Amino acid sequence: GENVEQHPSTLSVQEGDSAVIKCTYSDSASNYFPWYKQELGKRPQLIIDIRSNVGEKKDQRIAVTLNKTAKHFSLHITETQPEDSAVYFCAASINQGGKLIFGQGTELSVKP
Amino acid sequence: GAVVSQHPSRVICKSGTSVKIECRSLDFQATTMFWYRQFPKQSLMLMATSNEGSKATYEQGVEKDKFLINHASLTLSTLTVTSAHPEDSSFYICSARDLGTSGTPHQETQYFGPGTRLLVL
């Protein structure tokens, strides 16, 4: 089955700097890659997603890139703010039924 | 739109009892719902896929007789943790997949419920 690896597990940046989180997936049939932000004790919130027919997608300070050949996708947050501090999860959806397989998560800390 | 609710938000029970958790899609129909479990500081682990009107599909290693799933309508799925034990204490989160107005399976956005924190004493 699908396996998603996410790095780093923790990331600390200064306010205003950029943050990059990387994920790899194993199943070449995966075609949907969402990113979720989860604050402590709360539900994951979808922040951006990308489909396999697109190489890059941007939404204000957030961008996601996808390299299908290498089976890599990355989340880029620019001009980080303290409110960006949370745990971020990448995920991949395999073809059978759309179930999501999550990466291990990255705890992002943005220091003022 | 696309709101998913869960009930209860928090439950404490004694070891050996059963606990039922409800997941509802409030403003859309969801033929498929998913159940996840999340232990502290860990990722979301898919437990099962709940399909309206049919049996749930369980992930490897998840006991179907212990985690009973019922998806009797297009807006409600329930997860019952039977004979709960302290090791079942966790954060249980459901998600629902919105097929959109066209009903196409390519609408894969999932919306998560707020989660249910289960503590088994």
* Main beta sheet of chain A: 6 strands, mixed
What is the N-to-C succession of helices and strands of chain A? EEEEEEEEEEE
What's the total number of strands of chain A?
A: 11
Helix amount of chain A: under 10%
Q: What structural category characterises the helix and strand content of chain A? A: mainly beta
Average pLDDT score of chain A: 93
- Share of residues in helices of chain B: under 10%
Number of helices of chain A: 0
Give the strand content of chain B: over 45%
Give the uncertain stretches of chain B in residue-range form: none
Q: Give the largest chain-chain interface (CB within 8 Å).
A: A-B, 22 and 24 residues
| Terminal Cα span of chain A | 41 Å
- CA gyration radius of chain B, whole angstroms: 14 Å
Structure description:
The complex is a heterodimer of chains A (112) and B (121). The N and C termini of chain A lie far apart (41 Å). Chain A has no helices and eleven strands. In chain A, the strands form two sheets. In chain A, strands 2, 4, 5, 9, 10 and 11 form a six-stranded mixed beta sheet that branches. Chain A is mostly beta strands and 112 residues long. Chain B is an all-beta fold. Chain B is built from no helices and eleven strands. Chain B has strands at 4-7, 10-13, 19-25, 32-38, 45-51, 57-58, 67-73, 76-81, 90-97, 110-112, 116-120. In chain B, the strands form two sheets. In chain B, strands 2, 4, 5, 6, 9, 10 and 11 form a seven-stranded mixed beta sheet that branches. In chain B, strand 5 and strand 6 (57-58) form a beta hairpin. Classes of the chains: A mainly beta (112), B mainly beta (121). The A-B interface holds A 1, 32, 34, 36, 41-46, 49, 89, 93, 97-105 and B 32, 34, 42-46, 49, 57, 60, 91, 93, 95, 97, 105, 108-115, 117.
